[in-house]
UniProtKB/TrEMBL annotation:
<protein>
    <recommendedName>
        <fullName>5-oxoprolinase subunit A</fullName>
        <ecNumber>3.5.2.9</ecNumber>
    </recommendedName>
</protein>
<dbReference type="Pfam" id="PF03746">
    <property type="entry name" value="LamB_YcsF"/>
</dbReference>
<dbReference type="InterPro" id="IPR011330">
    <property type="entry name" value="Glyco_hydro/deAcase_b/a-brl"/>
</dbReference>
<comment type="similarity">
    <text>Belongs to the LamB/PxpA family.</text>
</comment>
<dbReference type="InterPro" id="IPR005501">
    <property type="entry name" value="LamB/YcsF/PxpA-like"/>
</dbReference>
<comment type="function">
    <text>Catalyzes the cleavage of 5-oxoproline to form L-glutamate coupled to the hydrolysis of ATP to ADP and inorganic phosphate.</text>
</comment>
<comment type="subunit">
    <text>Forms a complex composed of PxpA, PxpB and PxpC.</text>
</comment>
<keyword id="KW-0067">ATP-binding</keyword>
<dbReference type="GO" id="GO:0005975">
    <property type="term" value="P:carbohydrate metabolic process"/>
</dbReference>
<keyword id="KW-0378">Hydrolase</keyword>
<keyword id="KW-0547">Nucleotide-binding</keyword>
<dbReference type="GO" id="GO:0005524">
    <property type="term" value="F:ATP binding"/>
</dbReference>
<dbReference type="GO" id="GO:0017168">
    <property type="term" value="F:5-oxoprolinase (ATP-hydrolyzing) activity"/>
</dbReference>
<keyword id="KW-0614">Plasmid</keyword>
């Protein structure tokens, strides 16, 4: 039986400003990328999401980003290596503390937004993030864009890497994501999204925005939690995959797995 992980970016609400429906998404996904306070999220809200993830047996990862609350971590930045290594360590450490209090633990790291896209190809910033992860815990898994140079770069540095595909984002012919500034970058049609993701699992292929066929090997599928149709898209993907005989399970192990180990 084919299997895949479903992940979503959660814990991104800030004080009285809500972002996404975390409770509903936690009933659908198998892994949750939890904001660490730099691009979004506040400690009380993050702790609430972590407790719910632990209750539901959902695996959790540190969703680290640039220090950019105003831009939601989606603006390109060029921090020094010392800053980026320190920021990586700081964010993972903060989430580890909150996760311990919630009765779960951080199993992986997924960079957010502009940081994610930058380190896909920028070797210097990628090295800084890799160094920060290894300084905290070399056993942490890195989630990265399928087909991007950082995948082999991180593996060569000794990290385990899980590759992901994006359910609700359009791809360029080179395997990169279409910029959110361009029309068609975000896909809102649940039927289209579900069909695309079943093809990823069954054929390891996806059609780029220009019609090019791309080979894409992925162990996890991401559905962004901050889009208005996020819950409907996630349910459509989950239902289609299960109906097609695909097993959904976290790559990093759930808290229930950890408790029974």
């Amino acid at each position: 039986m084919a299997s895949i992980d479903l992940n979503s970016d959660l814990g991104e609400s800030f004080g009285p400003w809500p972002m996404g429906d975390d409770a509903s998404m936690l009933g659908i996904v198998t892994s949750a990328n939890i904001a660490c306070g730099f691009h979004a999220g506040d400690p009380a809200g993050i702790l609430t999401v972590l407790r719910e993830a632990a209750r539901r047996g959902v695996s959790v990862g540190a969703h680290i980003g640039y220090r950019d609350l105003v831009g939601f971590g989606r603006r390109n930045m060029d921090p020094s290596s010392a800053e980026l290594v320190g920021d990586t360590i700081y964010q993972i450490g903060a989430l580890q503390g909150l996760a311990k209090a919630a009765g779960t633990e951080v199993g992986y790291v997924k960079p957010h937004g502009a940081l994610y896209n930058t380190i896909a190809n920028d070797m210097r910033q990628a090295d800084d993030v890799i160094a920060g992860i290894k300084a905290v815990d070399p056993s942490l898994i890195l989630m990265a864009l399928a087909g991007a140079p950082i995948v082999e770069q991180a593996r060569a540095a000794g990290l385990t890497v899980v590759c992901e595909a994006f359910a609700d984002r359009a791809y360029n012919a080179d395997g990169s994501l279409v910029s959110r500034r361009l029309p068609g970058a975000v896909i809102h049609d649940a039927e289209v999204v579900a069909t695309r993701m079943l093809r990823i699992v069954s054929e390891h292929r996806i059609t780029a925005i220009d019609g090019t066929e791309i080979v894409l090997e992925a162990q996890s599928i991401c559905i962004h939690g901050d889009t208005p149709s996020a819950v409907a898209l996630a349910r459509a993907v989950r239902d289609r995959l299960i109906a097609s005989g695909v097993e959904l399970k976290p790559f990093a192990g759930s808290i229930r797995d950890l408790a029974n180990a």
